[in-house]
Amino acid sequence: MEQYIIKGGHPLVGEVEIGGAKNAALAILAAAIMTDETVKIDNLPDVNDINVLLDAIAGIGATVNRIDRHTVTINGRGIHDFSIEYDYIKKIRASYYLLGAMLGKYKHAEVALPGGCNIGSRPIDQHLKGFRALGAEVEIEYGKIMAEAEKLVGKHIYFDVVSVGATINVMMTAAMADGLTIMENVAKEPHVVDVANFLNSMGANIRGAGTDVIKIRGVRQLHSTEYSVIPDQIEAGTFMFAAAATRGDVTVLNVIPKHLEATIAKLEEIGCEVEEFDDAVRVVSKGDLTSTHVKTLPYPGFPTDMQPQIGVTLALCKGTSTITESIFENRFKYLDELARMGANVKVEGNSATIEGVEKFSGARVSAPDLRAGAALCIAGLATEGITIVDDIVYIQRGYERFEEKLRGLGGIIEKVETEKEIQKFKLKVG
Ligand SMILES: CC(=O)N[C@H]1[C@@H](OP(=O)(O)OP(=O)(O)OC[C@H]2O[C@@H](n3ccc(=O)[nH]c3=O)[C@H](O)[C@@H]2O)O[C@H](CO)[C@@H](O)[C@@H]1O
Ligand SMILES: C=C(OP(=O)(O)O)C(=O)O
Q: How far apart (Å, rounded) are the C-alpha atoms in residues 115 and 96?
């Protein structure tokens, strides 16, 4: 099993290029099968989740051509199989987007119940409510969701909870339903807007993405397009908190600063200097940082996907910080690991109280999920000793060349697999 080994205690300094947004790209790839024409998608992150989804799309008969690591063409004309059994697909969350896409285009879809990070119970009732409202019959049997419709007809849908997945999924189906769909209480995340823009570039008629109400006038057919995925605000934020925690000076390149507002506000609150450019943000962290309070919320609130990264940073800030996790009930597991590195934390229900410490000590820790894994690497980079992070397969789901990008900022981090490699690293770093 691959691990990261880290020798920390050095400020991260320099520039890092941010890739395309995983969570936008996954939905866009699924939506690409909704036309028989060829779609070209650029700025894809080269991460495991994307590769699993591309294999699944090829597996049902679409033609998938990799132009390079970040560009792909997809042609859905050959799709002959509307049932996705593929073993890996159920492990990724975004497998549910094939349901919305296939239901919209073929009026029939069967997809294994989705997986994704184990950060809470993660129901999909709002997705199913939306499909049913549009006229689909939906059943769950043998771990599979089966959706079928003779005809899909636009409806007024009010979501009971704000869900990124349900908003995008039902939007995809409604894009090819008859008539007008009005979706209320929808998610406003940048990736919701990106998927709407992508579908519109294929000929869909979607208005209001990025606000609380999305209106979709269904169209009969979608057509070819060329599209570039937006930058990943979570990858960018991860490097920004890595700069803060290591008392570094890092500029994230190829970002949309507007998408990073909640992150920038928290970095400034704890005492970092943040400079915004057209498509870059520089974070400078000098001297003592101070505590703050964080509550995760749907966009434009502070993202739950950035909660572990700020948590690790706050554990090294002076004073008492609190974090309220209001989206997922099981996203504090990384704090147990951090406690093994010397953090002073207490979790009660959906709140964590963090008493800042001056430094951590290196330890062997496990990545409990994707963002938590990245956050534990930040902890290791901020720690003078040696830290080993196990289960990095989670990190590889969503970060491209993570260790290489950190090394580019002066971080001492290597991917290792054997005890011999660990010893070699220790000898090298002294
Ligand atoms: C692949 C992907 O894009 N994953 C992201 C997506 O996950 P995901 O789409 O699973 O998250 P949602 O936005 O749907 O979940 C938000 C909240 O709504 C609840 N809920 C959701 C759907 C539903 O049918 N019923 C229901 O009750 C969830 O339990 C959660 O409490 O958005 C999350 C919130 O920004 C991010 O953390 C994930 O990284
Ligand atoms: C939780 C995440 O992903 P997923 O929803 O795919 O588990 C994430 O991207 O942080």
A: 9
